[in-house]
Amino acid sequence: MYFYGTTGVNKQGHLEIGGVDSLELAKNFGTPLYVYDVSLIRERASGFKKAFAEQNVKAQVAYASKAFSTVAMVQLAEEEGLSLDVVSGGELYTALAAGFPAERIHFHGNNKSREELEMALDNQIGCIVIDNFYEIELLKTICLEKSAKVNVLLRVTPGIEAHTHDYILTGQEDSKFGFDLQNGQAEKALAAVMAFESFDVLGLHCHIGSQIFETTGFLLAARKIVEKLAEWKAKVAFEAKVLNLGGGFGIRYTKEDEPIPPSQYVSAIIKEVKLLIEQYSLEMPEIWIEPGRSLVGDAGMTLYKIGSSKDVPNVRKYLAVDGGMSDNIRPALYQAKYEAVLANKPLAQNTETVSIAGKCCESGDMLIWDLPLPRAEEDDILAVFCTGAYGYSMANNYNRIPRPAVVFVENGNATLVVKRETYEDLIKHDLPLK
Ligand SMILES: Cc1ncc(COP(=O)(O)O)c(C=O)c1O
Ligand SMILES: N[C@@H](CCCC[NH3+])C(=O)O
């Protein structure tokens, strides 16, 4: 059995996390419950920061808050000295409400609205990552109206196809994101932003995809970008102060996944960029990255209560839990795989293979297919590992199922950081017909 961070088995033979018995968590906070191992998030954050410090380059590690955005999480990112990537007014609002320093917030998105851009300017956030020509014009208009200046990065697509699921690929030419580096769009965008004096054009951004296990894609992207920068230095005297290579660092969900440590990505990227910079006689830019999943993914687990079961003779046995695609849509959306144990007997011998079904009215609402487990009883607690990224943040109210609570655990203490939704919450914006 593979345990992440502080997860282990306590004297009572129960699964524990952050020094807290998972059965106590389930009893005190109810199920389904998202539980986060805070010290593992701290460890992941300092891993990235240390890797940059060792390379002796100016850097920012911006937590991609789309992976898991709540006030407490943003405050934890602040405590760890991270910057923050937001992609919507809602994520920006959360960051500001959490007291996150505005100058360390970077705003992404392929269709930022006027209101969102105004909110960003009014709060003087660190930079806006411009995605398309529409946004250049809109942002120019708003800057003129407000007599505001703003730092910008241009998001470019370098034409890289990283090896990951199609829906989480972003760096290839046929993508909804960014300016294409090869077909002249990026150069045209650069000319447009350089010509507007209220923009301080810090540099370029690219993000090649998510759940990537190798450095090759990042190095290739860096090469394509630096080559372009060399061309632009000669042609239009543009020099980038910042090169943001995005996130996408893979994590271990199951034994099939073999992630490499953050330090390895960072050192490979820096080595390559330094080499290229030297080769083309450019100034070394600050290197920014935006890890989401790799900061919070394996620090989160979800606790469910087991309810009904169904045998399909000679085919499979279904075990149903009290959550499902409403709290974790990733298996349905990306065929994502997870591992799980019974929290009340994590070390018991596996005696059967079961498939874990959710409770939504959807045949595709399956959390795990073919999971080896000891014989489970009604009310046993199932702990699904590695649900910390894109679990809570993609949760929904399908079938009017309330979103679960979120608890942070550290050094034997459990803190409720998001309350469980209530039925009243579900209808609070509904208006009666009469
Ligand atoms: C622009 C950008 N930055 C960062 C991330 C974070 O990715 P991940 O959670 O895979 O690190 C994403 C999501 O894929 C993204 O689109
Ligand atoms: N939400 C996705 C990743 C896409 C991230 C945003 N570009 C996941 O769960 O894996």
Automatic annotation (TrEMBL):
PANTHER family xrefs: DIAMINOPIMELATE DECARBOXYLASE, GROUP IV DECARBOXYLASE
Pfam family membership, one: Orn_Arg_deC_N
Entry binding sites for pyridoxal 5'-phosphate: G248, E290, P291, G292, R293, Y390
Alphabetized UniProt keyword annotations: Amino-acid biosynthesis, Decarboxylase, Lyase, Lysine biosynthesis, Pyridoxal phosphate
Pathway stated in the Swiss-Prot or TrEMBL entry: Amino-acid biosynthesis; L-lysine biosynthesis via DAP pathway; L-lysine from DL-2,6-diaminopimelate: step 1/1
Listed name of the protein: Diaminopimelate decarboxylase
Molecular functions per Gene Ontology: diaminopimelate decarboxylase activity
SUPFAM superfamilies: Alanine racemase C-terminal domain-like, PLP-binding barrel
Annotated Orn/DAP/Arg decarboxylase 2 N-terminal domain residues: 40-296
Record carries keyword Amino-acid biosynthesis: yes
PROSITE patterns per record: ODR_DC_2_1
Residue ranges constituting the Orn/DAP/Arg decarboxylase 2 C-terminal domain according to the UniProt record: 33-388
Superkingdom assignment: Bacteria
Origin species: Neobacillus paridis
Record-listed E.C. numbers: 4.1.1.20
EC category: lyase
Family statement: Belongs to the Orn/Lys/Arg decarboxylase class-II family. LysA subfamily.
Gene: lysA
Cofactors (names): pyridoxal 5'-phosphate
Function noted in UniProt: Specifically catalyzes the decarboxylation of meso-diaminopimelate (meso-DAP) to L-lysine.
Record's subunit section: Homodimer.
